[in-house]
Amino acid sequence: MTELAAAKAALKTQAVETPSWAYGNSGTRFKVFAQAGVPRDPREKLQDAAKVHEFTGVAPTVALHIPWDRVEDYAALAKFAEEHGVKLGAINSNTFQDDDYRLGSICHPDAAVRRKAVDHLLECVDIMDATGSKDLKLWFADGTNYPGQDDIRARQDRLAEGLAEVYERLGEGQRMLLEYKFFEPAFYTTDVPDWGTAYAHCLKLGPKAQVVVDTGHHAPGTNIEFIVATLLREGKLGGFDFNSRFYADDDLMVGAADPFQLFRIMYEVVRGGGFTPEVAFMLDQCHNIEAKIPAIIRSVMNVQEATAKALLVDREALAAAQASGDVLEANAVLMDAYNTDVRPLLREVREEMGLDPEPLKAYKASGWAERIAAERVGGQQAGWGA
Ligand code: PSV
Ligand code: MN
């Protein structure tokens, strides 16, 4: 197989998971702008996600967020998803929106609140059993705002204890993905602020615990591809929450702010053997001012483009240049791949998959946006936190 054919074959296997919450209304703490046609329940979110998959061919699963996507019958929801051509993906927990969680959840000083948080996480595993989801994605808003507010070390002990209980509950083929974030909503200490803390807990827990890298959760200037390379080397990279940031946790379309960074990340993924179903490639985005479905299609395409470029790196030439200490040549090999216009290649890939080569144009021509705007009238639109 030629290198190009191998790249095309790999691109056809790509799977980017889209988040249910990206289909609902969202905004900043200043304003949530409602949009016509936005889903009113999890089923309508799945219908929209199915459109993203229909036009891209590489978005076969949808992440749920509990309680935002709470339903009576999760097995029925999974069936509904499959009838629409997608599957349910990671179950995201939420221990940050109840009044009880003012001082934290799993790290809270009060054992009763910790119990409530762990019970929620256990409920998420029950949901995974019903949906067939393999990943429980954990992000904790826990932390403190003031020096002395709580005992930093004791909070780590509580975290370890709570995580261990949930870990024990995981079934065959199920994993927990622990997400870190360097600040917000806590500003003095965050209980899982960085990959090192997440890694230390996951290492202690065992092989079913893996770290998830949300690209928006780092301080400016952080070399995220180094973190990716290190976690892959340790066998501890569980997945990504992809988005873009200009400042902090902006949650904008992935690849919009810094496509070169996305390429560098995807190169380390490919280089480290991470382009496999063992690593979950998820989006975690909130589209505030742009139309939801096209923005998600654009994000999926941006991940595809970065992946295509990463797959085109001439690894032999790169290794030779690196081994001979040829700094300029090594850099040139990498930049050659980055500067390749992969859009014609991706158009070919889509045609070979029986898809329209232009997903955004095809979506626009499909009339779906007009249809949902006309049909989804009345009721309560889904929104961040609802
Ligand atoms: C937290 O900022 C986060 O990245 C976590 O993944 C949450 O589950 C998600 O955002 C919710 O918006
Ligand atoms: Mn995230």
TrEMBL record:
> Keywords, A to Z?
Isomerase, Manganese, Metal-binding
Where do the Xylose isomerase-like TIM barrel domain residues begin and end?
A: 49-246
Alphabetical list of Pfam families matching this protein: AP_endonuc_2 (PF01261)
InterPro entries (UniProt xref): L-rhamnose_isomerase, Rhamnose_iso-rel, Xyl_isomerase-like_sf, Xyl_isomerase-like_TIM-brl
In alphabetical order, the GO MF annotations are: L-rhamnose isomerase activity
Task: Name the Enzyme Commission number(s) assigned to this protein.
Answer: 5.3.1.14
Q: What is this protein called?
A: L-rhamnose isomerase
